[in-house]
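User: Some background: our group keeps a shared notebook of sequences we're curious about, and every so often someone picks one and asks for a predicted structure to add to the entry. Today it's my turn. The entry only has the sequence so far, pasted here. Could you supply the structure so I can complete it?
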Amino acid sequence: MPGKSAVLLCAVAAASAAAIPPAHARSPAGFLSQGQFSGQLRSYYFSRDYSTASAVNARAFALAGLFNYRTPGFLGGLSLGASFFTANALGSQSADPKRVDATLMGAGNAVNVLGQAFLQYSGHAVLVRIGDQLLNTPWAGASDSRALPATYRALYGAFTPVAGLKLRVLRITGFKGRTAQGFFQDNLYYSPTWHGDGSYGGISNLPASAPHAAGALAFGATCRFGGLQASAWYYRFLGFAHMVYGQIEDGPTGAPIEPFAAAQIVREWGRANRFAETGTRFFGQPGTAVDNLTLGGIAGVRAYGASLSVSYDRVRREGVGALGAGVLISPYTAGYATDPLFTTSMIRGMVELGPGSAWKVRAGEHTLGKRLRLSASFAEYRTDFAGLDTELYFGVLLRLGGWMKGLTLRNRLGISHGNANPGGGRFLYNRVMITYAF
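Assistant: Of course. Here's the predicted structure to add to the notebook entry:
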């Protein structure tokens, strides 16, 4: 399927270039040379260390590149875009697959994929993009915390009828996970061997014989009024669940000292056809109907570049017949820990842990002209089937300036204790990330 995208993109590019008047470009090559090229180089080293003998410590290194090209506009607002993603372990992977952190870039030595190939229209307060693309929506996004991001085969549209109001529509038909070599009709609940990618990531509840995923449909609205911003989304994860998600928050005012707060709600329902057909269980709990209610809130204060906040989320336990006794179904974030819940941490969150409650305290500091960012958090999860889990997190990010502008150094450390870890012990996850954007 990726090959079809490349052929389509090249064909449209050639036809479009030929349609440009001579005043703008004398040849297809001249037209294409006027486009914009950007990208990022990444050097990532991840290490997993466990305190119990039932888990094997793992390491992974990847040198990656994300190379993006966008043509100049033509025919009143059209443009073409493409991105090539590549990651290579440079022969550094352990010969023992169990000792490789396959979530970084996969179990193999290289990933090479055309991650984006799309046609876009922008103009008159409208943006429409069709093809393989990055997305940025609450429950379907890039999940960009590994060597390569996740991308989607989709139709995306956004409309801004008046200042402060943005309407969006989305139809997903294919998905490329962070370690996948192409786009497939699946999501993060499918078996890692479903399409030959043994390191797909995610929760992988469905067996290899599960039927193809039909994708997702979504509608969203974001509105700013006064100092508040409210957003509402409806997702239909076809064959999995219906979801309504809402969030309201107060925006920054620029005052030296200012409190802030936000609230969120998730409501899911529907027959989980894919799970019901295969007898899937979550946390050992069977069920054929999705029934979830999640409520959350956060409050804190910002002062002179520093911040302190406390957040809380609760996933209500449901009765007999509810899949996983009320588990939150999230086909494009499950196992990635990239959902928008306030208490989600680096390693996991309530999507991965099931019904129960969680709280998190977080502190941050931006200094050196916002080039240095320090953060620390502690989260506690009390869930019905896993019991007590905690996660302590430390992060440091430095953006360099001057002749090294574009270079970013970052380290993230998560220390998890609890039953969700292998053997119920400690899990220490360290991620060293060096990136250069151009």
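Suggested note for the entry: Residues 6-25 have pLDDT under 50 and may be disordered. The CA atoms of residues 51 and 426 lie 5 Å apart.
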